[in-house]
Amino acid sequence: MPKLLAVSWAMPPLLFPRSIQVSRLLSGLADLGWDSRVVTGNAMSFGDNTFVDTGLQGLYESSYDLIPVKPKNKFWATLTRPVLEDMPLHDWARRALKEAQAEISVNKPDVIITFAQPWADFIIGLELKKNFPSLPWIAHFSDPWVDSIYHATISTEIRTCWERYERAVMENADRIVFVTEKTVDLVMDKYPNALREKVVVVPHMHDSRVLSDHAQNRVKKQMLRMSYIGDMFSGTRTPEPLFDALDKLPIDVSECIELSFMGRMSNEYITMARQRGLSDKIRFIPLGSYLDSMREIENSDVLLIVDAPSDGSVFFPSKLVEYLVALKPLIGITPSSGFSAQLVGECAWQSLEPNDIEGIVEAFTQMVEKWKTGTLHVSNEHRNVSARYDRNVVANQFDAILHSVV
After folding, report:
1. Nearest C-alpha neighbor of 225 from the set 150, 145, 298
2. Phi, psi angle pair for 354, to nearest 5°
3. What tens digit of pLDDT does each residue of 114-147 get?
4. 324 neighbors 385 (Cβ within 8 angstroms)
5. Residue 76: its pLDDT value, please?
6. What's the CA gap between 75 and 10, in Å, rounded?
7. Which of 30-34, 89-93, 198-202, 321-325 has the least mean pLDDT?
8. Who contacts 120 (Cβ-Cβ below 8 Å, separation ≥6)?
9. Three-state SS for 95?
10. What mean pLDDT comes out for the span 340-347?
11. Cβ distance 38 to 63 under 8 Å?
12. Which of 123, 208, 205, 207 lies closest to 399, judged by CA?
């Protein structure tokens, strides 16, 4: 049985999108014969129980063994401290590196995978590659690092440091994994073609086994529930376009819509909805467990993708694959040149620019009309796209990459 050593601070029971995707991938690889051990964070030292989900932990924990590493200092403060020239490894990362080195010496894995969140996971990978140069290393980026729009305001000092580390990862890893071609184009544009040849694209995956048994047998409700699952960030990804659209809807349309947000929501937006008189049309649901979010997806009639305005979003929100498996109508409120819009379009649904309020109003109106007439159904195109992201399909893709370096 081939052995795999992963470094991923984000793992269940910590409730992060990265935790879900990494644990799901490792479960798929276990079905294909891989014996995985994971150097990870110690959730009990995290200090915020809203990020701990024991139900998520139970989904895939039989598929891998965890090596939890507890930091000396407070967990969150340790992880958010900048990675600077004089501190290339955080307290947790130093301890995780020591555990990973011991694991390699004792159990002799066939390959290492580092999953970035935080980016210090990659610095661990760099140290492991330096100490064990013949051991293949796969660096799984998922999202951009230096080029992320969410890092636009970092200091020149930190950016210079990150640029150096990112280049070192590109030069030393045996394979580099992203989840979309758009991310590859953005990140790798600054590197020579020889490094781009290391890159492979493996998308996020969903797992139909997390759906409830009664998902397809729901009775039609008196209102059309449109839902967004995820966090909203002040100044970037915001619910304001949805608020603006609700304000402009004809009464006979708006009275049919119930808009739900599930996740971490800034108080400013809750206050804004109340001040605009939208409280009777909007539900704010606190962040629950992963399975709670899946039940909300299943109980919704239309699912919303909301991204920050930009020249072209390369991000592949992992919630989008959770949406796909539920086979529900979609509306994208996302840059038209971005990946989310591309995927929504492939499913034969519509995307609007975040500032196209009239377009959002029209999309909401069309959904209500189809709902009223009983014609709101997903297409075969949607079903075919969803099948591409099935856990077994994607795990087989990753298995082929592993065997290409082992």
Report:
1. 298
2. -55, -25
3. 998 788 899 999 999 999 999 999 999 988 898 8
4. yes
5. 45
6. 12
7. 89-93
8. 9, 79, 83, 89, 90, 92, 93
9. helix
10. 95
11. no
12. 205
For 38-61, write each residue's pLDDT tens digit: 999 887 766 667 788 989 999 999
Do 3-205+390-405 and 209-387 fold alike per CATH? yes
Q: Quick one: CATH architecture of 209-387?
A: 3-Layer(aba) Sandwich (3.40)
Joined together, the tokens standing for residue 254 give 């708006």
Taking the C-alpha atoms of residue 263 and residue 352, their distance in angstroms, rounded to an integer, is 22
Q: What CATH number was assigned to the domain covering residues 3-205+390-405?
A: 3.40.50.2000
- What six digits make up the tokens of 97? 């590196």
Angle 321-325-329 (CA atoms, 0-180°, nearest 5)? 90
What average pLDDT does range 181-188 have in this prediction? 93
pLDDT band at 85 (very low <50, low <70, confident <90, very high): very low
Collapsed DSSP state (helix, strand, coil) of residue 113: strand
Which residues contact residue 312 at a Cβ distance below 8 angstroms, ignoring those fewer than 6 apart?
182, 335, 337, 338
| 261-298 per-position pLDDT tens digit | 999 888 899 999 999 999 889 999 988 899 999 999 99
By CB neighbour count within 10 A (0-12 exposed, 13-18 middle, 19+ buried), where does 152 fall? Answer: exposed
What pLDDT does 237 receive?
A: 79
- State the burial class of residue 375 (Cβ atoms within 10 Å of its Cβ: 0-12, 13-18, 19+): exposed
CA 68 remoteness from chain centre: 22
Ordered by start, the domain boundaries in the chain are: 3-205+390-405, 209-387
Do the beta carbons of residue 151 and residue 75 sit within 8 Å? no
- Secondary structure in 3-state letters for 215-267: CCCCCCCCCEEEEEECCCCCCCCCCHHHHHHHHHCCHHHHCCEEEEEECCCCH
